[in-house]
Amino acid sequence: MANKGVTIYFVRHGETYLNYYGRMQGWSNAPLTDHGIEDVRRCGRGLNDVRFNAVYTSDLTRTQETASLILEENGQIGSLNMVQMPEFREVFFGSMEGMYGSEAYEKVRDYLGYDTKKEMFRNTDVAERMNAFRAVDPEGHAEDFMMFWSRVEKGLIKLIDKHRDTGETILVVAHGGTIRYILENLIPELRNPKGLLNASVSVARYEDGLYHLEKYNDVSHFTD
């Protein structure tokens, strides 16, 4: 007999001011822009036929604000508790938090020994660049890939252990890097996917021991 499975909706938070200014944003909190708020509301309206059984966010304000707006638009605000999970934070950039991304990646490019950032991005993966961020952080605070992933994986295991085979539909509002690596871990055929858009939806369904990707980086459901 087939089990009930579980369906997980992963939503990246809406655009923040640090996103808009092109600055590094890992553990730093920044409010959503007006454009970010409107995109999240459009996303929520597009999900108004989805009934969530549980809602999880990271403990950073941009994911909590995003989740509240989605629940408000799809009519479930007040009926569900949002559970904060620090495990689902974005990667920490240490002393480079808030730095212009162009400046921070110049440091990484120089450390990795490439002539141009375009060449660096073509020849390295996210994990290599994450490791380089830690190496070039003079304070030694930035997370490398294993520090980041071991933290995120603990949260993922908690989530799956609780909801696997319940037949439930779960909303997880988190960050671009966090969601991307969770899905790469769950979906073997997802290799080097594009970065996620703000307020985009990715859906993974677990059934009979396997994960199936139903949507990735989707904004087609946005309604005006």
UniProtKB/TrEMBL annotation:
It holds the Pfam family His_Phos_1. SMART domains: PGAM. The record marks H175 as: Transition state stabilizer. InterPro entries: His_Pase_superF_clade-1 (IPR013078), His_PPase_superfam (IPR029033), PGM_Phosphatase (IPR050275). CDD domains: HP_PGM_like (cd07067). GO terms for molecular function: phosphatase activity. GO terms for cellular component: cytoplasm. SUPFAM superfamilies: Phosphoglycerate mutase-like. Substrate binds at R12, H13, G14, E15, T16, Y17, L18, N19, R62. The active site is at H13 (tele-phosphohistidine intermediate), E90 (proton donor/acceptor). It comes from the Bacteria. This is Putative phosphoglycerate mutase. It comes from Alkalibacterium olivapovliticus.
